[in-house]
Amino acid sequence: MLAIVCPGQGSQTPGFLAPWRELEGVPSLLDRLSAAAGVDLTAHGTVSDEETIKDTAVAQPLIVAAGLVAADVLGLDALAPDHVLAAGHSVGEITAAAVAGVLSPEDALALVRVRATGMAEAAAASPTGMAAVVGGDQDEVLAAVEAAGLTSANVNGGGQIVAAGTQDALDALGAQPPARARVIPLKVAGAFHTEHMRPAVDALAAHVTGLSPADPRLTLLSNREGAAVASGTEVLERIVNQVTRPVRWDLCMEAMAERGVTGILEVLPGGTLAGLAKRGLKGVPSLAVKAPEDLDAARAFIAEHTA
């Protein structure tokens, strides 16, 4: 059983799409996705600097587009559904929905455009942010985050929880971290997956009413609690709601284990979720797609875990 996992914001790096543009069909696909997103994805994926692609309005479309480029090159839409599931972390849930056939690539980029713009505007309203809390006892960390007036916005498993909220509260948590834990500030522009993002919800909810989603052709896990969602309409409802709800990637990994996943394939820009799998799904092989040089290994990995 193969799990296709799609990363979230913060996984992008300057120039990471440059070698992918050398592959047949990728430049035209990026042009189509750029038109849907209203963002020059080719420029941002090849020449834009780190500060530019950190901007939420740029980062989210770029990450979704990159995942769909890798999915297209690998032919993931042709995989038989019996031995494949998909899941995405935060904005990666939109990538996963497209991989599972709920949305066309163009609809996915139009959707993420609305999400990213709304979240960027909400983040600009007040100084907020996120920090990874690594190590410590999970219950103690969750309690410390709450006591600091913060939200556990991502519970990622493998000893990692992401706290989100006002910058002052994050600074206070960093000054007095939970026992045996480190607090590491993240390069994101706001307190995602908290009530600070509430202003972004209405526009996103209005946008999805104009979409015609298909039901997932692959098992699609929700990052709300790791449950499989069989209705395309419900998938979109959950994508809207997750803007202000915590991401429970730990429960997604538990669901993968329960479903007998034997391999984790992380699409471009890969690395983060494969790293979490090494700690949260010990013994389950993972492969992160980062560059075209990874494609042959990825194809062999897919064949091995869908047989």
Total count of helical runs of at least 4 residues: 13
Return the CATH architecture of the largest domain. 3-Layer(aba) Sandwich
- The class by helix and strand makeup works out as alpha/beta
Radius of gyration: 18 Å
Global shape: globular
CATH H level of the largest domain: which superfamily? Malonyl-Coenzyme A Acyl Carrier Protein, domain 2
Unreliable runs, pLDDT <50, ≥5 residues? none
Percent strand equals: 15-25%
Number of domains: 2
Per DSSP E runs of 2 or more residues, the count of β-strands stands at 9
Largest sheet: 5 strands, parallel
Going across the biggest sheet, name each strand in turn.
7-2-1-8-9
Mean pLDDT: 96
Instruction: Work out the helicity level.
Output: 40-55%
Q: How far apart, in Å, are the first and last alpha carbons?
A: 8 Å
CATH class of the largest domain: Alpha Beta
Helix and strand pattern: EHHHHEHHEHEEHEHEHHEHEH
CATH topology of the largest domain: Malonyl-Coenzyme A Acyl Carrier Protein, domain 2
